[in-house]
TrEMBL record, chains A, B:
PROSITE patterns for the chain: ADH_IRON_2
Name the record gives this protein: Related to butanol dehydrogenase
GO MF annotation terms: alcohol dehydrogenase (NADP+) activity; butanol dehydrogenase (NAD+) activity; metal ion binding; methylglyoxal reductase (NADPH) (acetol producing) activity
Superkingdom of this protein's organism: Bacteria
InterPro entries found in the cross-reference section: ADH_Fe/GldA, ADH_Fe_C, ADH_Fe_CS, BDH-like
Record key words, sorted: Oxidoreductase
Organism: Desulfotalea psychrophila (strain LSv54 / DSM 12343)
Fe-containing alcohol dehydrogenase-like C-terminal domain mapped to chain residues: 203-370
One annotated Gene Ontology cellular component of this protein: cytosol
Amino acid sequence: MAFFFKSREIRKGKMLDFNFRNPTNILFGRGKIATINEHISPGSRVLILYGGGSVRANGTLAQATAALAGYTLFEFSGIEPNPSYETLMKAVELVQDESIDFLLAVGGGSVIDGTKFVAAAALFEGEPWSILLDRGASIERALPMGTVLTLPATGSEMNRGAVVTRRALQAKLVFHSSHVFPQFSVLDPEKTYSLPLKQISNGVVDAYVHVMEQYLTYPVNAMVQDRFAEGLLLTLLEVGPRALADPEDYDLRANLMWSATMGLNGLIGAGVPQDWATHMIGHELTAAHGLDHAQTLAIILPSLLTVCQEDKWAKLLQYAERVWGLKGGGEETRIEAAIALTRKFFEQMRIKTHLSDYGIGEESIPRLLQQLETHGMVALGERQSVTLDVSKKILEMSL
Amino acid sequence: MAFFFKSREIRKGKMLDFNFRNPTNILFGRGKIATINEHISPGSRVLILYGGGSVRANGTLAQATAALAGYTLFEFSGIEPNPSYETLMKAVELVQDESIDFLLAVGGGSVIDGTKFVAAAALFEGEPWSILLDRGASIERALPMGTVLTLPATGSEMNRGAVVTRRALQAKLVFHSSHVFPQFSVLDPEKTYSLPLKQISNGVVDAYVHVMEQYLTYPVNAMVQDRFAEGLLLTLLEVGPRALADPEDYDLRANLMWSATMGLNGLIGAGVPQDWATHMIGHELTAAHGLDHAQTLAIILPSLLTVCQEDKWAKLLQYAERVWGLKGGGEETRIEAAIALTRKFFEQMRIKTHLSDYGIGEESIPRLLQQLETHGMVALGERQSVTLDVSKKILEMSL
């Protein structure tokens, strides 16, 4: 297979072919929520979906409702972090009972992901769980939807992917479909001022790892994608800690928000190999132990880069130089330093990076590996070389 | 007005609000032309528009025709560089006579720009020249269109703008409309192998200046946009000269192509002030003296950066450091060096950078200024500070 070649060799590879399309209309800036009515057909029956009470408490929900005077409005609340199939199916029922024809997600990645599932499931023929089992392939249509983003992190506001958890099965699964691109997304940086700092920490780490999953593989001479990815990493390094220190600095929040959206809207991943092993192993940690998504990424990524360094050698050197400014010394030293600095950045963002920090010990590893196997995650990474044995090493190094 | 402040002050400005949407589907890679039928409604009457005979000679036209077996096809050839209103109106007539319902542009920026005009003019009520006079504001619909790009340069394949020249009036005018986004664009780097090197020179300089028009203004703390712009400039500096030396290196042409598209698809310009004075002055040079578009940009930009350096001080320093690696010495010295290196790069790309190189002397300046005035170009640039007096200085410095 073309992807296998001597690991440390710098492959004079060709940029991979790709199709890229992203039709989401981004409405970026202060007060943009007041303009959403320009983007929803008049007379629509609109269901507003959200999570806990924070969007009600901070006025965002009222602003959305005010912007939609003249529409017939419905509400569905209680979409949880790592949105569950069980909860979302209640929303699907409401959509069908009330003949809803537009969905408005108000919240962060979980609410938006959940709304994408509702959009597809409401028009799906057959058992909606199969949407997750075939990763979206069977989706032929979806209700139109828009979003008001309150938490910069996942990029879901401008992409075609979503993650849904089925608690009964301890399964956290991903699906993709062009039918669930939001038609518009409001990105108002001021909406993030009132977020708990823990969510900013999670958001920065999540966005950083999204970029790394698409960047830190092997080189195919995709210069634009590499420069863009490095630009996002540098921006997150610059604004992340400052956004914790100064929560009402507009520019910091604006740059954080735009970085997170650009980090996972398909652009930097077009034409390059992608990894995603950190995410897949991390999903099992969340499903089994309830860790925040970003916590799992902060734990797994440094170990994965260490275990898989031979496969990622050339790109690790590029990362060390362009993102961390490391030029001198031997190659091993630079790579080790870049991985250590990555871990240090996560810790600086106040996210612990070892399983033991969360009370998870060696005895949990067999169960996690079993779940990876159950979900078919037996050949992960850009070379499909992260077998269960490699995942075991990564988890052991993460203790 | 908020844009005016003490020139050398580094404004702690806020990122500007913006809406960003770009629905064009990019089909990137070898042989993608064979897939265009997947993106045009079955049974369509398709008009293929192109320029001279090169797309016929090199087989691209035949590939497009082969991909569209089963459609009713028409052809319109002869769209010239700097496409003329006079020529395009003949295509409009053909579209109306033959009830065409899809336009396929096969060529470079001129063919694509011209096709955008035809798409809008064919459905326009009233005199189509008014599309240019109000810069596209009156466009309410357009025929759907797609493109097969053969020349990386203008970015027209993934944006909503076009430039049309009316020879009888010596007028070269721009219009924009969301209705003329191509539905798809094929970017196959191998299609550029047979281009005359002069067109690669022009394309690289055109793309470079597009990025500069959106980047080299004043800082508003738009970190992502700045990093992306710098990434494109660095890529063009790296691949431009090598693409002249080695015309059949796939990776060089792929990176050049993607840089040019990304340079003017709305992304790096979202939320930042923009200049475009170089383009507006350059358009008058083309209209009056027939210079290639890129030649006019290579002449005007270095002079404009010199004349307007006080207004652009902070960004010129950033450009000097991040793109050219200039850190030591006084600020004036770094800025002067960065502008000199920019000029040197254009010359290295084999584009002359003085009016005298093209036989244009001081006596031409009054006429050029008169045309700028006629076209309302009396307060250009990101601060509207490029008055006719400033344009005069820029032209004099370009002799």
